[in-house]
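User: Predict structure, ligand S-adenosylmethionine.
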Amino acid sequence: MIQRYRIQFPRADVDDLAQDETFFYLLEPGGKRKIRFHDYREIYKMPGLYEQLFYERLKCQSPAKVTSILKSSVAQSQDSNFSELRVLDLGAGNGMMGECLKKEGISRLVGVDIIPEGYDAAMRDRPFVYDAYYTYDFCNLNSEQRDEMASWSFDCLTCVAALGFGDIPTKAFIEAFNLLKKNGWVGFNIKETFLDKSDETGFSKTIRELIFSEYLDIFILERYRHRFSIEGEELYYFAMAGWKNGDIPPHFIESIDEA
Ligand SMILES: C[S@@+](CC[C@H](N)C(=O)[O-])C[C@H]1O[C@@H](n2cnc3c(N)ncnc32)[C@H](O)[C@@H]1O
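Assistant: Predicted complex:
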């Protein structure tokens, strides 16, 4: 039986928080517990809580959206077959994106997440989705881990609801991008404001440079509602799918300022 939780959002007047500071209360027999949206360790430990919070209450549609534009992009190419892609799902969490990819026919799929709770939750809730799942920090891969990743000969990278906001930095994304074969497919999403030139943060500038660089040919870029905020506001993101043209060179990586 699916476990259900009593979730309560804070009153509007106490919630003027950035997206990565948002929290909710979990109502338990012993009292109410405050949990931040980004406290994935706590959330993944409770089966079904992530799904109830982000997918049922806040109507997140990002895994389905990124999967669909990736599939449409690949369909535009005569040389690739979607179901034959060897996919690296970066920031895989409890496997929501993996499940979508699997449903759409992907057969070779590897998940990676920085926290062991991601692995535990994926194995507990979706044990048949990933061929392998690694607890790696893509900002600090050692040579053994890099070799292990390279041995899969990935030709597709997905990264959903995980870029920016203190989650996956561009450096980790680039590491994964460069681990793909020379050419391959990439599907990911970012909050719409990150593409806005007025956002001068290091993350924003780097991601814009990367998206519009010669290393990536964007096939589809679509603005869509990622999910609702706890106040019921629509949060818009861009979903992107494209073709990797080649590795991102060291001089690009060295110039990254994430601040
Ligand atoms: C919002 S969750 C997204 C999970 C899943 N992709 C989905 O769509 O439901 C972001 C995930 O990125 C992971 N993450 C953050 N930094 C990371 C890093 N440096 N390397 C790998 N995973 C990371 C977090 O642990 C978290 O599980």
